[in-house]
Design brief:
heterodimer, A: about 290 residues, mainly alpha, MetI-like fold, disordered N terminus, B: about 270 residues, about 80% helix
Chain lengths: ~290, ~270
């Protein structure tokens, strides 16, 4: 799930294409992208201003929206914090130890991405709910997991895990062995080799995985609403608030919130890609795998 | 590297990862199958034969088929354009194609309402002419198209980039036209990547919930896809029926994951 870098794309002024069919295939691509992505997103960009600046100002004064944004951001952030060590551990085990059954585990890691979100939602709500396999024993200990913000964190942890593992795995796999061997011969302990050599190299993919998981997390709907409890100001996530506004036929309100959510998600991704570039150690080419 | 600890650490870490995978991923999947089969396999199958359930399955199959065909064609065109030619604005086009990944599914449904809803730009005009897109099947198709938009292009591009252009240029010099080159030279070579992207598109299209929930209007038997029907059943306390349909989707999802893994592994063996 790592971001794609098409390295060969450069700007060649007035160079004739060697292969035929350029205008046909570019035309098809532009038609497809224009109708299905650019057109609807233009509507999203323009709509909040259609009735003047009023609806947007109104949306910006909505305390419930800030509460929903806070819930979404904090829960997505906590979920990523949980996913980072788990994802690193899983990638490490799979790549370095190849234990019995590692292929099955490798396949299982993709499941949160492949299972429909509504299915995840009802499964997690039942599992962590008051009578569930995990919810019941946790309830005896006084922990309320489902129908609270903790439930949102659980759902987003599940959703985000593949992003971290799949970002780290290829880099870990292509990590040059001789660097570690040299460190070992120079007397570095296992822990030192991990902290001083591997972790700096793994920081960029960890960051980009975290960015993707976070962006996905703040927009997540299906897996969250069943387990969240959905109380305004407490456990209501932003995408749900958009749906509520739409059910009130408040299109302007819904669109303003949507625009704010989308812009923040994109800003997060841009920030992460800048951060990633600045911590890049240059040891491993991320796009090599 | 043969100290005492270096033998114990791998075992501890492996056990730890297996426990985490078990708790986090295996347990929810096991629960879905357990809940679906609580009253036996027969009851589970019976719930899938309910008319509304059957209509949901049919609608999902139909929407998935249309979406997969359109996004596969678009994805091939995009991947080919971006990797076989040099032109201005290519980077912008790549970002645009990847944009839907970071858009919340709810927003993916909302944008089509803004165009085709009753308060939307063209919804009323089209409605007067008998064309209903929002709260109807075309809206569901559009929302699903948006959500699964990048997958084929994203899986194909890195591979076609690596292919280079020599084979295509040779085919062209020997007199093959555009379509012949695409169908007989480029695509067979990129076959596994294409199939993997198509499977991913299918899996995501089948399971899309948020975007479809916003635009479908939730009319049982008419505009309810499988995930929406699961929500209706679950909220109506029809737990066995909800989990039976969920189990069906999970089985399809697991199959696609396995096939994709197999494809990628056999590819890696061919091109180490």
């Amino acid at each position: 799930m790592k971001p794609l870098t098409v390295t060969g794309l450069r700007y060649f002024p007035r160079r004739r294409q060697t292969l035929p069919g350029f205008s046909l295939s570019l035309g098809l691509t532009l038609l497809w992208t224009g109708l299905l992505v650019v057109l609807p997103l233009t509507a999203l960009l323009l709509r909040p201003w259609q009735h003047g600046i009023g609806p947007m100002l109104h949306a910006l004064h909505d305390a419930r929206m800030y509460a929903a944004l806070r819930v979404s951001f904090i829960c997505a952030f906590l979920a990523v914090l949980i996913d980072l060590p788990i994802g690193l551990l899983l990638a490490w085990t799979l790549v370095r130890y190849r234990p019995p059954g590692h292929r099955a585990v490798d396949a299982l890691i993709d499941l949160p991405f492949a299972i429909p979100t509504a299915v995840t939602g009802i499964a997690l709500a039942t599992l962590y709910g008051p009578g569930g396999w995990i919810g019941a024993p946790a309830g005896k200990l006084g922990l309320k997991l489902a129908f609270s913000p903790a439930g949102i964190v659980i759902a987003l942890t599940f959703i985000g895990l593949p992003f971290i593992v799949r970002s780290v795995e290829p880099v870990l796999r292509s990590f040059p062995k001789d660097v570690e061997e040299a460190a070992f011969l120079l007397g570095a302990s296992g822990w030192q080799r991990f902290c001083r050599i591997l972790l700096p190299a793994l920081a960029p993919p960890l960051l980009s995985g975290a960015g993707l998981a976070f962006a996905r997390g703040i927009g997540e709907y299906g897996s969250v609403i069943f387990i969240a409890g959905n109380q305004p100001f407490h456990s209501e996530v932003t995408p749900l608030l958009i749906v509520m506004r739409l059910q009130e036929f408040n299109y302007d309100g819904a669109t303003s919130i949507a625009l704010i959510l989308l812009v923040t998600a994109l800003l997060c991704l841009v920030a992460v890609s800048h951060l990633r570039r600045s911590v890049s150690s240059g040891l491993v080419r991320e796009d090599s795998a | 590297m043969t100290s005492q600890s270096s033998r114990i650490i791998p075992i501890v870490l492996t056990l730890l990862s297996y426990t985490i995978i078990g708790l986090l991923i295996v347990l929810p999947v096991a629960l879905i199958l357990h809940e679906a089969l609580r009253q036996g396999l027969h009851t589970a199958f019976e719930t899938l034969k309910d008319p509304e359930a059957r209509s949901a399955i049919r609608l999902t199959a139909c929407v998935t088929a249309i979406v997969t065909v359109i996004n596969t064609a678009g994805g091939i065109a995009a991947a080919w354009t971006l990797t076989k030619y040099d032109f201005r604005g290519a980077r912008l086009l790549v970002s645009l194609i990847e944009l839907p990944i970071s858009v919340s599914p709810v927003i993916a449904g909302l944008v089509w309402l803004l165009l085709f809803g009753r308060q939307g730009w063209w919804g009323n005009w089209l409605g007067h002419h008998g064309l209903h897109i929002a709260f109807a099947v075309p809206g569901i198709v559009l929302a699903t198209l948006f959500v699964t938009f990048p997958y084929v292009a994203r899986t194909l591009m890195p591979y076609m980039e690596q292919q280079g252009r020599a084979a295509e240029e040779a085919a062209f010099l020997f007199g093959a036209g555009f379509w012949k080159t695409l169908i007989h030279v480029t695509l067979p070579d990129a076959g596994w990547a294409l199939l993997s992207g198509v499977l991913l598109t299918t899996a995501r299209a089948m399971g899309e919930f948020g975007a479809v929930a916003v635009i479908s209007g939730h009319i049982p038997g008419v505009t309810e896809t499988m995930p929406l029907h699961i929500e209706t059943l679950y909220n109506g306390y029809q737990s066995v029926a909800a989990f039976a349909m969920a189990a069906l989707l999970v089985l399809v999802a697991m199959t696609t994951v396995l096939i994709r893994m197999f494809l990628e592994r056999s590819f890696r063996k061919q091109h180490p």
